[in-house]
Design brief:
Blueprint lengths: L2 E2 L3 H11 L4 E7 L4 H16 L3 E7 L4 H6 L7 E6 L2 E7 L3 H13 L1 H20 L4 E5 L9 H10 L5 E4 L4 H11 L6 E4 L2 E4 L1 H10 L5 H12 L4 E5 L9 H12 L5 E4 L4 H11 L6 E4 L2 E4 L1 H10 L1 H7 L2
């Protein structure tokens, strides 16, 4: 059954609610245009033949606002959505192209939706590790767009935090609910781990259990500056616990570098916090004069070029 829509909110809601379950097609048509009618017949046949397709149409002559909202320059235009993501945009009525893509996406629906999930989960993991404390909120700290976000801002106080406006990205907004298994916003993450929503934060603040990011940031700054050269690794120089850590140690010793180390397996707070602090997701990590040089691949490139020796021996 074809849905006919008239408001941007109807389209957004349809995509948000249905594109996790089916391939959603939004087709901008012109009732008086023969090409549009022919395409509509084709799309209806596709929907009738495959339970993984949901078709929604609108009359472009009567919906100028929607045409502008979706930046449609040519009618007919058909948009395809999976998991809130627009995976296809077909301007005109190239029926063979549309049929080929739609049949592929709908037939391979489970694989395609998993690909979209993986893409968004990787994006979300990057976001939650952008800062030791990350807030996913409606609006910004300066301009909250809901009472719960305003309440959270009053609770957080002068903590150091990063933030992401979930109203700016429908894909992140919807997939994050699944990633966190938490259906509402705000959501608060610390060192890549979910703390909870505003009620949980309020409980932790009132009980004195809410962690201080200022303390963690001070700790990390102290650690990266504990000596001129600091290697954050798995294990110790005498007993590296991964091949990459061993390789990093070998390169430093080859250049007779005097360095201190920190075993990130001994302190999960540092292990997770430093990823956000440095915006570097893996270990080992090498610091010189408090500045991140990089991981073992960067060290190898610098070693091959002769740059590593000059960096660790300068001054």
């Amino acid at each position: 059954m074809v849905f006919w829509v008239n408001e941007p909110s109807e389209v957004v809601q349809l995509v948000k609610e249905e594109s996790f379950k089916k391939l959603v097609l939004i087709s901008f048509l012109q009732n008086s245009q023969e090409t549009s009618q022919n395409l509509l017949t084709c799309l209806e046949e596709l929907e009738d033949s495959n339970q993984n397709i949901l078709l929604a149409c609108l009359d472009s002559d009567r919906n100028a606002g929607l045409v502008e909202f979706f930046n449609v320059a040519k009618v007919p235009t058909t948009l395809a959505y999976l998991g809130v993501k627009q995976i296809g945009r077909f301007e005109g009525a190239n029926v063979p192209e549309i049929v080929s893509n739609v049949e592929y996406w709908s037939t391979n629906f489970e694989t395609e939706i998993q690909n979209v999930q993986q893409e968004y989960y990787e994006k979300i993991r990057t976001l939650i590790n952008k800062h030791p404390m990350m807030l996913f909120i409606k609006g910004t700290p300066q301009n909250p767009q809901c009472k719960f976000t305003r309440r959270l801002m009053s609770l957080i106080g002068d903590q150091n935090f990063g933030h992401f406006n979930i109203l700016a990205d429908d894909g992140v907004r919807e997939w994050m609910k699944k990633y966190s298994e938490w259906p509402t916003y705000p959501q608060v993450y610390l060192n890549g781990e979910m703390l909870g929503g505003v009620d949980i934060v309020e409980q932790m603040v009132n009980s004195g259990e809410f962690p201080s990011t200022q303390d963690l940031e001070h700790k990390l700054k102290s650690l990266v500056n504990q000596s001129k050269i600091v290697l954050f690794m798995k294990g110790s120089p005498e007993n590296p616990l991964c091949g990459f850590s061993q390789k990093a140690v070998e390169m430093l010793r080859k250049h007779a570098a005097k360095f201190s180390h920190f075993d990130i397996l001994e302190d999960n707070e540092v292990r997770e916090g430093l990823k956000a602090y440095s915006s570097w997701p893996t270990y080992p990590q090498l610091y010189v004069d408090g500045e991140l040089i990089g991981g073992v691949d960067i060290m190898s490139e610098m070693d091959a070029s002769g740059e590593l020796s000059s960096v660790i021996n300068k001054g």
